[in-house]
Write a structure and sequence with these properties.
Layout (H helix, E strand, L loop, with lengths): L1 E3 L18 E5 L5 E6 H9 L3 E12 L4 E10 L14 H7 L16 E5 L14 E5 H7 L21 H12 L3 H7 L2
Parallel strand pairs: 2-5
Antiparallel strand pairs: 1-4, 2-3, 4-5, 6-7
């Protein structure tokens, strides 16, 4: 398949990225936003008949016989009961939760410029949990070192680290979707 680029109102992508990697909002059959997936996965769900395109990106995918609009928002055709969601504890999810912001100095950086900090250092009994890991710039991480926060007078957490919740997940959907007008009516801005 070849990528045919459509009109200029297509959502912005990073340079060199494929239209197949563009984020797509996934709605339950009830139109409730439940997830974000890549355009490739969304297209597979649509072609399998599991989901339907509600909003298109403005780009098309061409094959020898078929032309398909790339979805921006898809809706599952059958209602799926979504259990209480717990996200996997990972660097990516911690950075998402903390919005790529150092939790000590408040500077926003790229994922590559951030590290994870154990609020209670591992050497002092701290575990790798949602409540003990935060995004941190390298400068603050070195400054904090192996100390506990109450031992430092000039460092505080911007906010208490919490597990990923449905509220966090919806907030992230809103942030990612803010550049795509097609998502707004589904995310209750």
């Amino acid at each position: 398949m070849q990528h045919g680029l459509g009109p200029a109102h297509a959502p912005e992508r990073t340079r060199g990225s494929s239209p197949l990697q563009t984020p797509v909002l996934v709605l339950n059959a009830s139109y409730e936003p439940i997830n974000i997936c890549g355009a490739r996965r969304a297209l597979v769900l649509v072609l399998k008949g599991v989901a339907r395109t509600e909003e298109a990106q403005g780009t098309e995918l061409h094959s020898a016989r078929v032309k398909v609009e790339m979805p921006s928002v898809i809706r599952l055709l059958e209602y799926r009961r979504i259990p209480h969601q717990t996200r996997a504890l990972s660097r990516k999810n911690i950075l998402l939760r903390d919005r790529n912001t150092c939790q000590y100095c408040g500077i926003v950086l790229t994922a590559g410029e951030l590290t994870l900090d154990h609020v209670v250092p591992r050497s002092r009994g701290g575990a790798s949990t949602w409540e003990n890991l935060v995004a941190c710039c390298h400068t603050c991480n070195r400054k904090k070192g192996n100390s506990l926060l109450h031992e430092l007078t000039d460092m505080k957490l911007a906010r208490e680290p919490r597990p990923f919740s449905l509220h966090t997940s919806r907030h992230i959907m809103r942030m990612i979707g803010s550049s795509d007008a097609n998502w707004r009516k589904y995310l209750y801005y």
